[in-house]
Amino acid sequence: MVHTPRPARRGALLVSTAAALGLLAGCGNGSGEDVHSGPPASSAGTAAPARETPSPSASAPAASSAPVSSAPARTASPAPPGTTAPSGGTTAAPATPAGGSRCHTSELRASVGRNDPGAGQENFPVVLTNTSGRTCTLRGYPGAAFVNASGGQLGADPRRTPGTPVTVTVRPGQSAWAGLTFSNPEVSGARSAAPAALLVTPPDERDPLRAAWPGGPVPVSGTASSVRLTVLSPGTGP
User: Fold this and answer.
1) pLDDT reported for residue 17
2) On the CB side of 120, how many CA atoms lie within 13 Å of its CA?
3) Which of 36, 166, 182, 226 shows the greatest Cβ crowding within 10 Å of its Cβ?
4) pTM of the model
C-alpha cells in the first residue's frame, strides 16, 4: 500500500474545490443574473416558510343590507286589572258610581215642613225632594233667604249651625232636610216682617227654589234676630 503524504492530500482537495467553483460560475442564464430555484436558506439550514397574504373576504365581516336598530323593543303596557282594552285603542269611561252625581236645582222641589216650637224658639224643616228620574246626592248646607212679595230679601242670610256634613243619597221621590231655627220675635223683641216666600238654594248650585212660607212673622233686625240653618240630613224632618 502506497501512503500519500498529508501535504499532497491537502493540495488535491484545494484543486477539487476550485474546479467545482469554476463549474458553478459557468452555469448562468446568459444575462449575467443569478438564477434562484427557491428561497434562501435560513441560518438554521432550513427553508423559511412562504408568507401568506390574507384574503379580504376572510378577514372582513360580510356587510348587511338592512340597518340594525340599537333602540330596545317596546312592549305594550298591560291593562289595569278588571278592565278590557277596546279594539279601537281608546279608554272606556268609568262607570257612574252607585250614589250618582249631585242633585241640581232643576231636579228638586223645596218646601217648608211643620213648625216644632220650644222655649221661645221656632224650628222649621226645610225640605228638598228629588223630582227627577235618577238618583242624586246632596251634601252640606243649603242656602236660604226670606223675601217679600216683590222678591226683596228680608233680614240677613241665615248663619250656619256647626255640624258635620254627610252625603245624602236621594232616589226619585226621596228627600233631605235642614233645620231652620230663630227666636220668636214676640219673645225676643226683634223687629219682624212677614215673608211671602223662602228662597232655598241646593248645595253647590246657583239657582234658588221658591217655597211658600207658612210660619208668620220672622225677625229681620234688632236683638236676637239671627236665623240659623243646620246641615242636610236624610228624610223630611224630625
Assistant:
1) 44
2) 10
3) 182
4) 0.59
Q: 139 with 167: CB under 8 angstroms?
A: yes
Given CA atoms 49, 54, 58, 61 in this order, what sign does their dihedral have? positive
In the three-class reduction of DSSP (H, G, I as helix; E, B as strand; rest coil), residue 136 is classed as strand
Residue 139 φ/ψ, nearest 5 degrees: -150, 130
- CA 218 – CA 227 distance, rounded (Å): 9
Strand 143-147, strand 175-183: pairing: unpaired
Q: Which three three-digit cell numbers place residue 204?
A: 253647590
- Give per-10-residue mean pLDDT for the chain (238 aa): 47 44 42 41 42 44 43 47 40 46 97 94 97 97 96 95 96 98 94 97 97 95 92 95
Query: 11 φ, ψ to 5°?
Result: -70, -35
Distance, CA of 189 to CA of 224 (rounded, Å): 8
Q: For residue 206, what is its C-alpha cell?
A: 246657583
- Cα separation, 109 vs 209, in Å, equals 7
